[in-house]
């Protein structure tokens, strides 16, 4: 029997990346299509998607590039970056990530593919790692409370400013910023202050007569950008006399030997944990820290990890004060930050654990001693050192020669900080050594100049820091910082924590609106390339040509996919993208003489960061009604735009909708807003349902942010990193963000100016842009379209399978959903007192992370399978939910106890195996439901956590070691 030979094209397609990324094989796709009564995948376009939003022109993207070709291309790209020794400082320093952390965390999908720890029972490992981070920050800053990280130092300082305004009893509307703060921090503060109407004063707090002026908050840098370390006591005293709050932006490594900001009476301490083992990465991602007094805990932005107990009375961790999660508070929110930098905070915490207090003291002491030796040597060569009391940074007076010396340094592959024509700055770090010191001396003296003797200087130099500014108290005394200093113990500790969690390496994470798709290993490889992760964000542009190529090519790709004309990569989270996009719209109206346009229309169904972002951008929120199908009410829209015709600034809309539906009236909605002078902001959280099928910029949107950590495969990292770039039409491009240090970040800038600076680094979290570039390159136009259609297929298949058991709450055209579906669990509360939380916890016993709980509708589950899951895994998940529905029926019928049942008691921890079994249902039903976990059972480390207890007994630092046993 003869068989037909496959064509060359078919042979080339087999085994390519598209088939590796999309979970289901062609046979499984056909089986799911048959279940839906469809013949081919493209039938979904006609069935589910409105005709008037589809692409009218083909994409310009190149064809698929193989994984091997991508690696080869990125290798050439990285070689265009020149990684010099950067002594620029300004908040960024070279560091050494211990190899055991690199291998077991950064390169371990058990850590980087996990989701935010909303389901605490399956997140105990990373919650413990984050609690360690909080303990480390509290110890070093001298504060009572720390959160589990923010986005970067500059935005953390801006969060502190708005928090101070809420807490301060001062009637003043003025902010004082130390002129010795890092310039990017000052710029972000000025941008954030503008919409709130705060008056920002930048000056020298040690020379200015502050007692005669009134401010509601002060920001001080410690040590200063020029390296100077000041006693903060007098300024803190003056501030508190005015009822003002003091924020100190501190360098974390310096706090190992310097007196803590808390000892001076600071109210808030912020900074960057980057130099604790996290590469500079041309700007990010890095975990900012935010510490404050215990009395301010309910006003603190971001997430706080707290100690609680489970239903068995055992020690357990959770996100504390969860009502502070800002998206819940909508337009009453104090911040739009719903993203932290978990993976990077975890790395920084492990760095402190691995080195311990003694190891950190050695690192900090070495950096400080080298800095004094280098400065003293330069002084002996005739140079004036302007910094008197410094940790690792000092300023050199070089009259008229700064640029000449800096150029000479670059010839030796060393970057110095050019302050102006007469001054240079030098900052040393963990990687600095004797050879570097000698190289710097050579640069300043010339090849024939005599070199000072390092050993002689080491014996004779006097400590430049006065005793009252040196730390006297002990740090990191909790046993966790003393126990894991050998690589063997460290490796086992990290594995112990990772196995407590459910990440994508164990099972699907079917979270609605969160898109937990495959983060392919090939996409992740570039993160470990030194030429990408070793660059200082303020390195001269001629040394960063590989990054410039990467950013330009990725911008071209995204413009093609979205239909926009320009992108800014500066926003380093989706929430930051929303804020930046709305600022851009505000600036556009102001430039056109329409300052009064300040109304932002937001559907009632919107994610809570939308109204929070609008308020932060200086807009007033007007809520739009939704109809019974979850769509924006066009009638209410017409009424609201007519009412606010002269003041309408923008409409924020998510598409597909937050309810997981392609609204038929999207283009009509955009036209109505434009007719009344407004702009359309598209929340791109669900862009993965449009990718390759529709371009928002061509169907009515003026600006949109994209979640690269969702649609474009950057991993969530347990709750960060993320990237939220914004795409805009040509009319908005001139107003995109710029940067005070690196020029040319916005090439479209005109004389009208921009929105300013929104993040610390010029291109945000630049190092992880390599992931999205690789994803797009390997998928190509065809692959991206296939991914979108498979995601929509998987969601509709789940809706079809679950519909006989759970009502599907919202559907669109032909009763189809988009890339996610919502199942309604509200009736169970009435029928048998089973809540959606009970279902979520019971899913843990089946080995699954729960879908999104009670969003956007209370007592519902929002399910998004993504294209990366195959039919087998999807069926396993559906069968778990169907089995749980039967367990609910057993309670409804009286077959199961109404109070003591598998749902109320879920999840079932292994601790129950150690006790006499007293449940009215068999042990096998509790631990092995579904008969599909026998060979790889996930054992939840704790039972259901008592949230109320955790809030009433708030503890946000490490408990005694005995509690871990």
Automatic annotation (TrEMBL):
Residues 787-908 form the Glycine dehydrogenase C-terminal domain. CDD domains: GDC-P (cd00613). Its EC number is 1.4.4.2. Its cofactor is pyridoxal 5'-phosphate. It comes from the Bacteria. The glycine cleavage system is composed of four proteins: P, T, L and H. This is Glycine dehydrogenase (decarboxylating). It comes from Methylomarinum roseum. The gene is gcvP.
